[in-house]
Every structure is written in C-alpha cells, then in structure tokens.
C-alpha cells in the first residue's frame, strides 16, 4: 500500500481540511493518508481548542486513515523544529510523499527557494544576525534576509505567507534528513488563517470558527463550514481550550516561582522573566497579561510558546536533551489504516505505541504530563484520560 503524509492540527477539523485530505490523496495517488497531528498544545503556543481524541475522531471521519501524535517537544516548537519532528515521523512510518497546503500552490518555487538558501547559507545567516541586531523579531529577520536574496524574482516562493513558511520548512527538514519522500503542495483555498467567518462561503478559518464559539455562537451555526462529524464532536464538548480558560493556572505557575527560576523554562530569554512575573501580578485576564508583555521584539506566538512551557514545566535542559522522535504514538485508524500498519509492520522505522502506559522514555512521559496539564486546564476530572483512551478505530471504511 502507498501512503502520503500530511501535518495537521485540526483546531478544529473543517471543510478546508477535508479538501486538503482529499486532494493529498488524489495528487499523490496514495492508498492511505497519514496525518501527524499536534497533541494537546499547538505550534503557536496555545492549548488545543478540543482535545486530541476529539480531533482524531474528526480526522478519521473526514477521510484520514492513520493519526499519529506529534510529540509535545516538536508540536510546541518554532517552525524548523516543528517540521523536523513531523517529517521524521512521516518518513519513519513509510510515506512515499508528503503534501501541504500553501498560498503558493506549486512545488517548484519552494524547491528553488531551498536551493537558493542552501547555496547562500553563509550570507543568509549573516543577514539574519544583522537584522536581529536592529531589534526586530526573529521571524521578521528571516523574512528580511530572505527578501534580500530573493529580490523581486517571482520564481521563488513567497515566504511571508504562513502556510508557505511551514511548507518550506517541511521541504528543508525532509531534504536535510536525506528522506526520499516526494514533496507535494495544493493551493490553499477559502479563508486565510486569521479571517473571520463569512456568510455565503463553505470554507472558514479555524480561527474564525473558534471565535464564533468563544463569543457565544452555536455549533449548529457552523454547519456551512464543517463536516457533520466535526459538528457532532464539538457538540459533545463541555469546555473549549484557550489561554483565557487556562490563565488562572498559568498565573499561579508564574507567581509560584521567583523570576530567576522562571529562566529555566524553555524559550524564556533575555531577562523577560522579570516582565512576566510583574505582569502576572497585575493582569486579571490573559488578554490583559499579553497586553503588558507583547512588544516589537516578542511576537505573540513566541510569548505563548514560552507560557506553554512555563505552564507544563518544560525546561531548557529538557528541550536540549531531545534529538529525534523515538516512537509513533497511534491515536486512531481507519480500516485501510489498520491494513497499512499490518502490511508495513516490518518496514516501519520506529515502534508504534498505542497505549500511554508504554510511553516509558522521557519524551513519551512528557507527552503524558502535558496531556494531564491540558485536561486540568479544561477543568475536567478525567485526568487519567491519557491512560484510559485507546486508539480510535473508525469502522471498516476504506479510504475513499
């Protein structure tokens, strides 16, 4: 059986994701689509809107055949490490290709951009250092350095667009690891990442969908933008994950430490621990807190990743101890996905773990701990859910 891989968060799964899954399968000619999905915390440094089991169920109902969890250490990392972890898992499970959605819509500009930066790597790194020294954020420095090399040549990818950026890093990670997976891309359609829900269209952004529900809108009102299976899963959720929901526990986690102790947590740098500590004293809500700490130098995403690590207790020492994924955590499968695992068993490059009790290495135990902290933030009493939830099996549907 032939497999193609995609990297997802499904926060939550909507019609745009459905389109991506179908097009990935069509374009690759694969028999199964394998999704590497972030767990309870996401790349932009946020708690997932709904837990990973609900999102797995949405994914399988939407045509995905295997859902593999991206470990916390990669799921909450900057784009380069996020991509590195995801590509390693897709390669290990035997994908012949990977397919990402992009604003660019064509793969050749990404390949040319990769070659450009590879050939001018020394100059590129120097331009980044110079840009950072002007006081701008690291992502802005990357854009400035790349733009100076690219010039006005439209044969290269536009790396100012969020999906293009991630797509480039997927290609970069795969090529640097020596993977033989073929990169593919499809044109992103419909709403952009931050766009609000718009009447009269069938594809809305996940951000817009979340905003509707956070502002008291009904799940039923989202029916034009989401498959019925996703709507059903949302209707069963009592609480949705957000920093607003988690803030009392985050505030406690910050204030229980002295500023010098906050420095130990991953991504906390340059003395910002003092600002975090003082802001936590003053701010009654998360929005107030972010307003006190956000600056030109620190993007909201970078700050939220810091806060995620403080909340979960993830340290610099832990971050630096991980080199590569050590396992494939199975969250769910279709009938076709189960057949794929059975047929490819001898060719899969990492152990497939289906029970949390078998996650005995430090990376796996971190995933279990992060999941417990997520469930605590939701206010649920089911803190053992990580151990009691088996991989979701979606009937005998063959992947169509």
UniProtKB/TrEMBL annotation:
UniProt-listed Enzyme Commission number(s): 6.3.4.-
Pfam families listed in its UniProt record: HIGH_NTase1
Catalyzed reactions: cytidine(34) in elongator tRNA(Met) + acetate + ATP = N(4)-acetylcytidine(34) in elongator tRNA(Met) + AMP + diphosphate
UniProt record, GO biological process: tRNA modification
Enzyme class: ligase
Domain of life: Bacteria
Keywords: ATP-binding, Cytoplasm, Ligase, Nucleotide-binding, RNA-binding, Transferase, tRNA processing, tRNA-binding
Compartments in which it is found: Cytoplasm
Binding site for ATP: 7-20, 101, 163, 188-189
Membrane spanning stretches: none
GO CC entries: cytoplasm
GO molecular function: ATP binding; ligase activity, forming carbon-nitrogen bonds; transferase activity; tRNA binding
Keyword Glycosyltransferase found: no
Listed NCBIfam families: PRK13670.1
Protein family according to the UniProt entry: Belongs to the TmcAL family.
Function as written in the Swiss-Prot or TrEMBL entry: Catalyzes the formation of N(4)-acetylcytidine (ac(4)C) at the wobble position of elongator tRNA(Met), using acetate and ATP as substrates. First activates an acetate ion to form acetyladenylate (Ac-AMP) and then transfers the acetyl group to tRNA to form ac(4)C34.
Protein name: tRNA(Met) cytidine acetate ligase
Species this protein is from: Planococcus salinus
Gene: tmcAL
């Amino acid at each position: 059986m032939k497999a193609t891989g995609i990297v997802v968060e499904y926060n939550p799964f909507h019609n745009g994701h459905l389109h991506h899954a179908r097009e990935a399968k069509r374009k690759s000619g694969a028999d199964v689509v394998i999704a590497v999905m972030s767990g309870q915390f996401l790349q932009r440094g946020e708690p997932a809107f709904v837990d990973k089991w609900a999102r797995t169920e949405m994914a399988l109902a939407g045509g995905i055949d295997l859902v593999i969890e991206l470990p916390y250490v990669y799921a909450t990392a900057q784009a380069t490490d996020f991509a590195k972890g995801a590509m390693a898992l897709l390669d290990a499970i035997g994908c012949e290709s990977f397919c990402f959605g992009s604003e660019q819509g064509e793969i050749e500009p990404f390949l040319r951009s990769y070659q450009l930066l590879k050939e001018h790597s020394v100059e590129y790194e120097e331009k980044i250092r110079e840009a950072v020294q002007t006081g701008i954020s690291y992502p802005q420095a990357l854009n400035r350095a790349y733009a100076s090399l690219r010039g006005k040549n439209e044969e290269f990818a536009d790396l100012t667009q969020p999906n293009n950026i991630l797509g480039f890093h997927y290609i970069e990670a795969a090529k640097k690891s020596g993977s033989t997976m073929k990169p593919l891309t499809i044109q992103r359609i419909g709403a952009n990442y931050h766009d609000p829900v718009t009447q009269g269209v069938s594809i809305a952004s996940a951000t817009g969908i979340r905003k509707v529900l956070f502002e008291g809108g009904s799940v039923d009102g989202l029916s034009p933008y989401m498959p019925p299976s996703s709507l059903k899963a949302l209707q069963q959720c009592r609480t949705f994950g957000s920093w607003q929901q988690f803030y009392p526990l985050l505030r406690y986690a910050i204030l229980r430490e002295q500023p010098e102790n906050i420095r130990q947590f991953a991504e906390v740098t340059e003395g910002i621990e003092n600002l975090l500590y003082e802001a936590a004293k003053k701010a009654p809500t998360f929005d107030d807190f972010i307003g006190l700490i956000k600056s030109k130098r620190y993007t909201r995403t970078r700050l939220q990743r810091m806060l995620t690590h403080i909340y979960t207790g993830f340290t610099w020492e832990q971050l630096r101890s991980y080199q590569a994924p050590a396992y494939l955590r199975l969250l769910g499968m279709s009938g076709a996905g189960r057949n794929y695992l059975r047929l490819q068993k001898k060719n899969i490059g990492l152990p497939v773990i289906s029970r949390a009790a078998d996650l005995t290495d430090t990376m796996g135990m971190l995933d279990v701990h992060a999941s417990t902290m997520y469930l605590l933030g939701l206010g649920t009493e089911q803190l053992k859910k990580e151990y009691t939830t088996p991989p979701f099996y979606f009937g005998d549907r063959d992947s169509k």
